[in-house]
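Q: I have 353 residues here and want to know how they pack in 3D. Can you give me a structure?
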Amino acid sequence: MATMIQAIRMALHVGEERLGVTDIFGQDVGPPLGGIFTGTQGLKTAWNSPLDERGIVGMAIGLALAGQKPVAEIQFCDYAFNVIDLLKIAGNIHWASAGDWNVSLVMMTPVGAGIRGSIYHSHSFDAQATRIPGWKVVMPSNPRDAYGLMLSAIADPNPVMFLEPKALLRVKGQPGEQIPGEPSDDKALSKMIDAPLGDRSAWKPEWPKLGEFYVPIGKARIACSGNDVTVLTYGRNVPMCTLAANELAKEGIGAEVVDLRSLHPYDWAEIKQSVQKTHRVLCVNEDTEITNFGEHLIRRITEELFYELHAPPKLLAGAHVPGVGLADALERATVPQVSSIKAAIAMLARHEP
């Protein structure tokens, strides 16, 4: 099974071969490195930009307005905060031009904690991303969804932010989640598409015959079914919430884990259906707890589904601190863990209406 980063790379290959991608660029994106996480190795349209996030986003906007199809990478989302004004421009051009101009670009960037990246390589960007109108925002939790969401992002005429949970980039897919056309032998896949160590000047990938598979933007999936508590989450937290739900099932507590996959637009119909079934809601993500995307979901649930609730909705998010510490204990104390997720679900499940 492919890892998430291999899935993203294969989707980008399909994008440049069949979906009109003209440029894949960013710091260290081109040869020889092929991206800091190897997400762009062997791609024929990949090239290196200067270390200039504003230049990267500005170039992507210009290429898109000129009719090209760029995929731009900000090496870590921590450095996307200094391009907020340009992201706002990209998001408002279609609206400001009364529909005359589209900015069809994809901005991909790794997000979140989990790799001991310390204060400059561990931030989340999901709440900030959803505050910028005009953009679609997606975050996968497994390789198959990463592949399908990337193809949907490339095909979409709107600007799309593809947020990569960096802690999951090396995680392989599960049985039954195979990408169409990928070899069943993960070692064979690695030999085909992963660049060797050392001199890569003569290396070229041997791409498998990949099929097109699209995950619709705005469609959630049920990662784990349950009747007692709805858990709304995405990205790195999906497998942690699922693990917590599986452990709680042994205690007779049924948690339904909803993998949003898309933060904007999000699947309100799926959220509503789950809340009406469980009557209890927990939102879990890594972004800081103040002005958090989960707070928006709780606000809407409270406004529209108030009489369905048997307990106050709860948010479990990152601590409102300036950064994520390098030490393992500091990082684990800063963002949700399986133990804290499990405790929050159990508390909600046992709350008497």
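Q: Anything worth noting?
A: The longest strand covers residues 281-288. The radius of gyration is 20 Å.
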